[in-house]
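[audit] Reproducing an earlier prediction to check determinism. Same input, same settings, fresh worker. If the tokens differ from the archived copy the diff job will pick it up downstream; this log only records the rerun itself.
[audit] input (296 residues):
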Amino acid sequence: MSLRKSLSLAGAGFAMMGAIVATAPSAQAATSKNGVCETGEFCLYFNSNHTGSMVDLGSGVKDYGSGSTCVKFITAGSGRGQCVKNHAASVWNREAAAVTVFYKSGWAGSIDAIGSGSKVNLKSTLKNENAGHVVGNAANSRMTTGLYKTSGGRITAYFDGYLNTSGRHEGTDMARGIGSPVYAMLGGTITRVTQGARGGSGLSQIAVYNAGQNKTLVYLHTDPLDGLRVGQSIAKGARIATEDWRGVSSSGAAHTHVEMRAGRQTSAAKSVGDPVLSNPNPTSFWMSNGFNVCCD
């Protein structure tokens, strides 16, 4: 997606600027794009280890853009004036909540979730390959906490996040381990329960339709609880399954695929080998339901 760049040594002039950036901000409200990484901002750096040119942003950006209207690095140092898109290597999250950086524009693709206060290099799949970020709500829960009701879960693939598999990934894959309890992330009426079997050809599915939002959540690869039936009403947070590898080729790749679909549905959309996205981007949906796209 972009030309790779090597780290460059900063000159004496940049060292002075770096000292300014690192200085604690005043009590005044943060000012976006003023070249100072202040409390309440998310700052992106051209080079690793928070060197090179930087830009400070006060809100999420769906697409850093290209051409003359793109978001640009603004402080002194290597990369000054270049577009941020596909060029950021490190970040400092001074927002009050987690910030998620996305590989693709529109808050999609592979992700890297940055905890509040974290000052880190982006992980390898996002380093110099980044198109936007979303700022979480400090009151929201992590998606994995919503699914498992405990810590230890991680997002392994986000919406449209395939990097090495053909097709367009239609949901969010989360993993905690075989045997982990799985809970409903949205209440509603069950429209499908398929038990499946372990292995690549034994896909299990649980579909839950929420009439108020006119959305269906579909859970794949789990072991559904005994007694779960079509037509049954369940509440948000009710246990529905156990994490397993039903429809997954190996136990080591066990995960729970959670997919948001518009309308009343009874199955997941095809992902592997299918180049067309059937589902809308779910980022805003998850946030409006109390979940941040966070964290690995």
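[audit] rerun output stored. Observation attached for the diff report: The first helix runs from residue 12 to 22.
[audit] end
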